[in-house]
């Protein structure tokens, strides 16, 4: 654990005051702003999916996040996590340190999971902030206490768990291939393909549609345990496979 803690500390220092950390705020802020604009323009129609205004608002924001922003956000964040090492030819230096190779990769994996988790938490907080702002501007929307935390928190948690698989996949790709273009290209292509298969049977096993299916399913009252479990367990398996593949290579 000491070696992993040291590797984590190094990764945290490298992400400070970088675009990687700023995106944790900017990406959910973009979704919150989009939700605010939609609600202001469409009025109560934008919140008609549920009698609870708070629940409708947060779930609408979550669907926008899971379907549109999250896959691309993961692609960019994981690409940036490894871009410093690739750009400065630092992999050999990292592997020459006393830290074991597995600790270096595990630290990046944990940082990637933490960044996506923090961004998901930020989205939930910002969505609630939109509700308070709408209550000031449009009291008729019905944003009054209490907030149904028992419904909101599990929804965001399950979508986050469903995203573990794509986090592990993109971290593996960005670490395995030094080109940032390759990492972004894979993410964009996979996201576009996800839009095409979202309404097909393949969506239930396609990694990039799992968070979206989880968000839609939760909103419609469907069972989404399978999507969350596949994303969570698949993320662990791919993280182990990616760590084995990247750390066994002699030249990076």
If you had to describe this structure to a student in words, what would you say it looks like?
The protein is an all-alpha fold. Helix content is 78%, strand content 0%. The protein has 10 helices and no strands. α9 packs antiparallel against α10.
Average pLDDT over all residues: 85
The gross shape turns out to be globular
Give the helices and strands as they follow along the chain: HHHHHHHHHH
Structural class designation = mainly alpha
Share of helix among residues?
over 70%
Rg, nearest Å: 19 Å
Largest sheet: none
Low-confidence stretches: none
**Please, how many domains?**
1
Number of helices: 10
* DSSP summary, beta strand count: 0
User: How much of the sequence is in beta strands?
Assistant: under 5%
- Terminal CA distance reads 25 Å
């Amino acid at each position: 654990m000491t070696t992993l803690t040291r590797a984590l500390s190094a990764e945290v220092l490298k992400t400070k005051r970088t675009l990687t950390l700023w995106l944790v705020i900017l990406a959910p802020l973009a979704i919150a702003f989009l939700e605010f604009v939609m609600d202001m323009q469409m009025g109560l129609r934008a919140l008609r999916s549920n009698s609870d205004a708070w629940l409708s608002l947060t779930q609408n924001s979550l669907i926008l996040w899971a379907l549109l922003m999250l896959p691309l956000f993961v692609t960019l964040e994981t690409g940036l996590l490894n871009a410093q090492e690739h750009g400065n030819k630092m992999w050999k230096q990292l592997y020459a340190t006393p830290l074991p190779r597995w600790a270096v990769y595990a630290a990046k994996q944990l940082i990637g999971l933490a960044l996506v988790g923090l961004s998901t938490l930020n989205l939930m907080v910002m969505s609630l902030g939109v509700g308070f702002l709408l209550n000031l501007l449009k009291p008729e929307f019905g944003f009054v206490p209490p907030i149904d935390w028992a419904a909101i928190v599990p929804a965001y948690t399950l979508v986050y768990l469903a995203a573990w698989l794509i986090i592990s996949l993109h971290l593996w790709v960005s670490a395995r291939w030094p080109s940032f273009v390759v990492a972004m290209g894979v993410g964009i292509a996979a996201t576009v393909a996800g839009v095409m298969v979202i309404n097909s049977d393949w969506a239930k096993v396609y990694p990039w549609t799992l968070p979206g299916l989880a968000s839609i399913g939760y909103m419609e009252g469907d069972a989404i345990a399978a999507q969350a479990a596949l994303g969570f367990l698949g993320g662990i398996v791919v993280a182990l496979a990616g760590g084995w593949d990247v750390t066994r290579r002699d030249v990076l």
